[in-house]
Each structure stands twice: as structure tokens, then as C-alpha cells.
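Entry 14. Structure prediction run on the chain below.
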Amino acid sequence: MIALFAGLFGLTIGSFLNVCSMRWPRDESVVRPPSRCPGCGNPVRWYDNVPVLGWLILRGRCRDCGMGISAQYPLAELTSGLVWAGVFWVHGLTPESARGAVFLTILFGIALSDARFYIIPDQFSIGGAVIGLAMAFLPEGPEPLDSVIGLAGGYAMLWLVGMGGTWLIKRTRPGRLEEAGVDSALGGGDVKMMAMVGAFLGPWGVATTLFMGSVLALLVFGPISALTKRLIPLGIFLAAGAEVSYVWGDALLAWYQTTILMQ
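Output returned:
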């Protein structure tokens, strides 16, 4: 029952997350104007805004003009609901459930924004870092000092990676950054995002997130980037790496210590 109610609450969070991931990258308010059809401009009725069910009842189209509504909306709502249900199923009604569900929701919002706009809004990164520091005072998570060290270390580590990558690209591929319309190899949003990850996971979580995120980016998007010349939306893969680190980080670290370091 706890997981069921958490999942229903997660569906609502997913609906709001859709709004945030669409409006924050464009510096728009998430309060006004209310949700409306981009085609006819009519406001979405409250009963059509019910997560997942509203989209299914409307068959993915506006009630007034018939314009198609992206499947991203119900899929994001459903994903958020499953995340909340899953975390509370594993941890029960505990502070860790709240911390984990909030952290994974922020990561999901970052992935949605970065996939669509190549932007990680400060509301997710900086706001998430503040939430992560506050939640470090809850039991079961990292200690407050580890959270502070993780925040500073996550920011510093990715900033150094960005500076080194920018220098390397300018030396080996002059003009590549200008062609892509950017000034550096990594955006400021990625750097601030890693500070948020560090606030939630601590310094070891930063290390495993960077490793897993980099591997996933190279394997999944590396070939696409080589063919299309598009920059890798690193935030998506860092978010995936942080999710892996949150769920399996301790097991990965234990495996590394016993299998690699002990040899």
C-alpha cells in the first residue's frame, strides 16, 4: 500500500516534471500561464490533466482542435510513478525513500531537459544541490560533511575535465567548438549538475557517476556524435550514471576494492 500511494503521488510529480522540463530551459514560469494547447491556445481542462489517463482518454489529441499531444507526457508521468513506487517498495516508509525518490526525480528532469534543449536548468542543479545538502541531515544517507565534500568535489572535478577537454579540442581540432556554437567542451549546467550529484551521493558517488556516465556516453552516443557531428548531451548520461551509482554504487565500490585493489 505504501508503494501504491507513493506511485500515485509520483504520477502527479511526473506531470509537474513535464512542465518544469519544458519551461525552465526557456526561462518561463511553471505557474503561469496554465497548461494549454500549443495549437489552439485553449487551456487544458483539469479532468484532461489527470496523469496518464487524461492522455489515454483523449487518444493523444487536444480535445478542442485535435492537435497531437506528445507521448512524452504520459511516459514521463508513468516513469516518475514507477520510480516513486519502486523506491518506497525497497526502502519502505523511511527518510531514505524520500531522499532517493527526490534525487531520482531530479535526475529524470535533467535528462528530459538536456535531451530536448541541451540545457540543464539551474532549478534542477543548484536547487537540487540545496535539497541534497538539506537531506544529508536525514538518517541513512551520507553524512553532512560527506555531502559538502561531494558537492565541492563534483563541481571541481567536472570543471577540470571541462577545461582539459576544451584545451585538447582546441589543440587537436581547431574550430570544432565554434562550429558547434559553444565555447567549451562541457556546459556549465553539467558542472553544476555534478555538484548536485555530490550533495546527494558524496565523493565516492561522484567518482562512480563520472565513470559510468562517461562509459555510457561513449558507447551509446559516441558513434552518433561521430557521424552527425552533434555534441553529446552529457547530462543524460551523467543522470543515468548517477542512477546506477545510487542503486548499485556500494556494490560496485565493494567489487572494485575486493577484485581490483586486492589483486
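The longest helix spans residues 188-228.
Filed with the rest of this week's runs.
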